[in-house]
Amino acid sequence: MSHSPYLRDSRSVRQIMLHVLLALLPAIGLYVWQFGAGIVLQLLLASVTALAAEALMLKLRGKPLGLYLGDLSAVVTAWLIALTLPPIGPWWMVVLATSIAIVVAKHLYGGLGQNPFNPAMVAFCVMIVAFPALMSQWPAAGLDFQHQLDLILGGHRQLDAITSATPLDALRTGLREGGADARVAEILQGPAFGLLGGSGWEWIVAGFALGGAYLLWQRVITWHLPAAFLLTMAAIALLLWGMHPERFASPLLHLASGGTVLAAFFIVTDPVSGATTPKGKLVFAGGTAFIAYMIRSFGNYPDGIAFAVLLMNICVPLIDMYTQPSVFGHKRGAR
Amino acid sequence: MMLDRLFKFHGGVKPDSRKSDSTGRPIAQLPLPPQLVVPLHQSIGGTPRPLVRVGDRVLKGERIGAAEGAISAAVHAPTSGIVKAVEDRTMPHPSGLPAACVVIEADGEERWIDHGPLPWQSMPGDELRDFLRDAGIVGLGGATFPSHLKLRPGAKPTDTLVLNGAECEPFITCDDMLMRERAGEIVRGATIMGRMLGARRVMVGIEDNKPEAIAALRAAAGDGIEVVAIPTLYPAGGEKQLLRVLTGVEVAAGRRPVEYGLQCFNVGTAYRVARAIDHGEPLLSRVVTVAGNVERPANYEVLIGTPIDALLAAGGPKPDTDRVLMGGPMMGFALPSTAAPVIKATNCVLVGSPTLLPPPRPEMACIRCGTCSRHCPADLQPFELYWFGRSHNFGKAQEYHLFDCIECGCCSYVCPSNIPLVDYFRFTKSEIWAREREKAAADAARVRFEARNERQEREKREKAEKLAAKAAATRKKLNDGDGDEAAAAESTASPAEEAKKALIAAALERAKQQKSQVKPRNTDDLPADKQAEIDEIETRRARAARHDAVKPPEQS
């Protein structure tokens, strides 16, 4: 026999995940417009792999297939992976990454709700450590779909003509090669850069921001995580740019390139592996932005968000423990 | 005087209130049932002592149970008739367990005891409070705490008397209708209670989804009574939540409002106080909402002790009814039996159906989304408590303030994974209580055991000393008779060894006696042929047992 409350609100995990998928659509549309339809194939590959891997693992673990397969959390993971990998990577890359995320990072840790690490970021880190060269091949603007399809499905990879570095990568390389004489302003004249960040990327970033606004409006996420992430990123960038404008990129570039906006609204907002208290969310997202900036600017990888997220995931139990909100009747004023 | 501003409590939910279903008709009188079952225990505290016996004739309003102990309130015969039984009957409680009730067969005459207005203004406070106790006045918001105990001015003078007319649970409209129809008497009750407490001001908090009730009370309220519309947000009717909204005071855990100069009563209680003092009427009836899956949702004035079945008959349950709740859908409970009586705590009988109160969807894993903590009016982290409860980490659950949970159900209501969080908290709480009881029992047992050990040690010591003394005395006697030789030999042994020797001797003697008492078994001394026969039987038996074991089970 069931007990009170006998009424339930209607929103389910499936609906929450649907909102997230919906929120990703504007950015995906802009992605296709800017870089071609290759990304759609990648999204499809990732989704199919994720659902297959999820079904397999649920069956192996003896869990109800319909209940958990329908929650769509695997599809969200899949889409985030597809959107963080280069759209012209060979097909097996996205399949492998998605499998790692679902099988290892999610189900080996106990499935939905149990994973201490963000599955999409685990997959990204494995891929960038294992295949650094493939992971840095991004399509040059105007690469047609047929060409993209060939690349994805295993065609001959004639790279220089068709790929371009990501803005952060170009910046790093520029600073390295230029040595002490390098100037950020000169590097930014290069073809990889557009109005704000990477050429074409400012549109996609706007798409992610739009999706983020939708999630905030739908109360799927709270303001704490994106605000802390973006503000911390901007603050550190502003500080270092203010001190050495010739050596460090502007806050605007940091916000508009790499995965900053995607991470702020879709990655650090993963509830399972992130902090949960209001103050804890500020600490978690702020810490992630800080580490990401440090890796970006001083480390060996073009972008450090994935590593930063995993590092902060480890700290979540501690953050949550020390940021518990005061309970009614135990507040400082109440005596 | 208008209120400057309202305060907020954290969280809360806004379920569909469904109140207009049952506010379309005025409060109706339920016909007198042939038999009334009045439970003796209808308030928090001691069970009243029965004052009537089987066969007694009782009048309407006659006291049939006297308050017992410091916290208790009387119960009364709701109509005139004959006591048919004083026995255990099924109670309206989730357990459905029976408890002592007075069963009265109504004679249909409704003959009252002598009753009339009380000269309350000239009465000493204690006498007035005793009167209310004997009139059976208890909190009608659901907690049924004896009201007279809350009408004693505290150490700190009472600043504000708050009447709770929030009625935040969906479907329930008994307070709403009472305020609409009997606002004058509610105001009268509030005035009396305000005087008893010496309150500086009186406030009535009503959720703003009850504009008619607000208007009625405002029209009836005189000077010094503020009728405040508060935002509709479940659980605004929780005592601490309402006090927070109206006064901004956050009553700390484990403290009572009176310690802050506040006191809070349900509007229904105020109405009953006025009836008791102005008319001498004890608490014999209350307004009960019948709503949900019924043909005629409405409010009824119901005598305490009326079978819930009679109320259901008035409401007319629809064919797909699958259960009946007492209380609202958020905090009520399913009645194991509708034969149970209406009691002072019965504010609503909610009839459910699979469409109205759908069965819970399958429970999924917690994704730590934190929706529950955003809606918890106690600022708890329900999902953390859920993890701790599941892993039996009871210490951590208490550290995270499990016992500040008021079981309002907001967390379960919003959980996207359909986790019955409140059920987990009820379970964890009862486990902790059980453990504490066990620990207390174990502590008591340990103390008992240690005391027993000590006593046994002491007795042994005393016995040994006595024996030693006896031995010494005997020896002395022997020495005196047998001369110096034995004395020289004996004197080398120390007194301690003497005592030990005496103990050993005593033990040997006891053992010898026990041995001689043991009877030989009749199989101990058998002739050889008998023994062989027995052995053969045993072997056969063992074989039979083996055979049974391998035999396939018989088909039936």
Write up what this structure looks like.
The complex is a heterodimer of chains A (335) and B (556). Chain A is built from 17 helices and two strands. Chain A has helices spanning 13-35, 38-61, 65-69, 73-84, 91-107, 119-130, 132-135, 145-152, 159-162, 167-178, 184-187, 201-217, 224-243, 251-256, 260-267, 278-298, 305-322; strands spanning 138-139, 163-164. Chain A has a two-stranded antiparallel sheet. The relative contact order of chain A is 0.10. The mean pLDDT of chain A is 86. Mean pLDDT of chain B is 88; it is low at 550-556. The longest helix of chain B has 62 residues, at 421-482. In chain B, helix 3 runs parallel beside helix 5 and helix 10 (382-390) crosses helix 13 (421-482). In chain B, the strands form four sheets. In chain B, strands 1-14-13-17-15-16 form a six-stranded mixed sheet, with helices on both faces. A four-stranded antiparallel sheet of chain B has the order 2-8-7-4, with no helix packed on it. Chain B has a four-stranded parallel sheet with strand order 11-10-9-12, sandwiched between helices. Chain B has 16 helices and 17 strands. The chains are: A mainly alpha (335), B alpha/beta (556). Chains A and B meet through helix 1 of A and strand 16, helix 12 and helix 13 of B.
